[in-house]
Structure formats: C-alpha cells, structure tokens
Amino acid sequence: KLIRHWKKWENITDAIGLSAFAVQGALYAQKLNLPISATIVAAVLTGIGGGIIRDLLARRKPLVLRAEVYAFWTILAGFLIGAEIIVSDWALYTLFILIVCFRMVSIHYKWHLPHRRIDTKERSMHK
Questions:
Q1: Cα–Cα distance, 47 to 18 (Å, whole number)
Q2: Do residues 58 and 95 make contact, with C-beta atoms less than 8 angstroms apart?
Q3: What is the DSSP letter of 34?
C-alpha cells in the first residue's frame, strides 16, 4: 500500500515538474526572441530533462523513451507559448495547471503513443 501511495505522489510531482520546466523553458526561449521551433525544443528539453535524470539515477528506462504520452504535453506548451497564443500571466498559470492535469489523465487512462511492432520474420527479411 505504501509503494502504491508513493508511486501516486511520484507521478504528481513528475507532472508538476514536467509542466513547470516546460513552461519556463518556452518562456526563456521566447524572451530570447527565438523562433517557434526553438521555443518548442526548449520546452521539451527543459520539461523532460529532470525526468530523464531521475530515471537514469533509478536505473530505469526514461519515460520519454517509452510509449507513454509524456513529451507531447511539453510540445503543446512550447507551441502555445512560441506562437504567442498564451501571453498573459493568468493564461500561463492556466496552461501550467492544464498540462499537469493532462499528464495525470494520461497516466490514469494509460494513454500511449501509437506504435508499430515489427515482426521478427519481417525484421529478418529486411537484413
């Protein structure tokens, strides 16, 4: 029971960190007048960086390398901030909360990115 409780809090704090650092990275790139593509990259790299370090220290495969919807929310934040759709302080706070909520919903409902498995027979034919 304690482990399940700990896992829940790990997911919540991860979602908060993902959102906070994605928004902060995008805002910094926007402050430097970088193009929208660079703003998205800054949001993704700063957003997922802490989670990657955490997973590597725990000797786990980083979440971003699994099929989970993880980096998508940082891409969304980078786009909305880089395209100047989100500009006011209250809109930024709302975006922060929405990204946390979307991340938690994607964990709860086990949303995954679409992927295709290559059959081993098919794989050997391509060699």
A1: 5
A2: no
A3: -
The pair of three-digit structure tokens given for residue 72, joined into one six-digit string: 């998508």
Whole-number Å distance between alpha carbons of 16 and 101: 9
Q: Which residues contact 104 (CB under 8 A, 6 or more apart)?
A: 11, 12, 15
In this structure, what are the phi and psi dihedrals at residue 112, rounded to the nearest 5 degrees?
-130, 155
Q: Which residues pair with 68 in a beta bridge?
A: 112
- The structure's pTM equals 0.85
| CA–CA distance, 91 with 97 (Å, rounded to integer) | 10
Closest Cα to residue 47, out of 9, 28, 80, 19?
Answer: 19
Q: Are 78 and 48 in contact (CB under 8 A)?
A: no
The first and second tokens of residue 108, run together, are: 């709860």
Model confidence at 88: pLDDT above 80? yes
How do residues 8-36 score in pLDDT, each as one tens digit? 898 999 999 999 999 999 999 999 999 99
Nearest CA-CA partner of 41 in 84, 79, 67: 79
